[in-house]
Inverse folding.
């Protein structure tokens, strides 16, 4: 089986060498799609060389549209039936994609665990529910899903300001009856930064939580 990795970047190409190395070392058939969301800082030379040497596809937005739109652009361009997103400052652990793909029979979405700045964070290993999704996002960002899931839920939410687009995406998938599977494997490392989007959203978490699940569950 094959997978399309959608790697979104905005003014943070200095993180991409590690992210791309972790993608390239995955022992599966894959394509890597970088979506540059109209960065105002040029992509660094080391990254340009990696792109050229490995035939990596780059799509650049002509205006800054936000993470949700960048993900949608990359997924629309994906040629494989399975997709996984990765942010520019995150990176996969070895054998992550093989482990997820091996578990993908008879399901639509496969999730695992992650680390946050090296600290282990367990994924959701017990049953999902409407109530869980309303209160919090029980899913990790870099989970494997069928491209048809994105099409079925209408893609990631787009909003003029940062938002919980991952939370909204997984909630819509659950509400529409897509099948989730958990594997006890650490998939990737999430890099928490002082200027990271989640930290910026936290002071207004209740507002953005309501936005993420508004209209999802009838």
């Amino acid at each position: 089986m094959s997978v399309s990795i959608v790697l979104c970047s905005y003014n943070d190409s200095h993180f991409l060498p590690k992210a791309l190395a972790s993608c390239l070392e995955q022992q599966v058939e894959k394509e890597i799609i970088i979506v540059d969301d109209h960065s105002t800082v040029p992509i660094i030379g080391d990254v340009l060389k990696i792109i050229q040497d490995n035939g990596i596809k780059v799509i650049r937005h002509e205006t800054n549209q936000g993470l949700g739109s960048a993900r949608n652009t990359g997924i629309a361009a994906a040629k494989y039936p399975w997709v996984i997103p990765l942010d520019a400052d995150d990176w996969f652990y070895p054998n992550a994609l093989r482990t997820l793909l091996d578990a993908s029979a008879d399901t639509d979405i496969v999730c695992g665990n992650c680390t946050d700045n090296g600290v282990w964070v367990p994924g959701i290993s017990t049953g999902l529910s409407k109530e869980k999704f309303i209160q919090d996002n029980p899913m990790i960002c870099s989970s494997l899903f069928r491209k048809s899931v994105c099409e079925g839920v209408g893609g990631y939410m787009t909003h003029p300001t940062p938002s919980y687009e991952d939370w909204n995406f997984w909630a819509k998938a659950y509400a529409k009856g897509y099948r989730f599977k958990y594997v006890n494997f650490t998939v990737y490392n999430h890099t928490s930064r002082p200027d990271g989007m989640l930290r910026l959203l936290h002071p207004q978490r209740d507002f953005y939580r309501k936005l993420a699940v508004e209209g999802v569950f009838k």
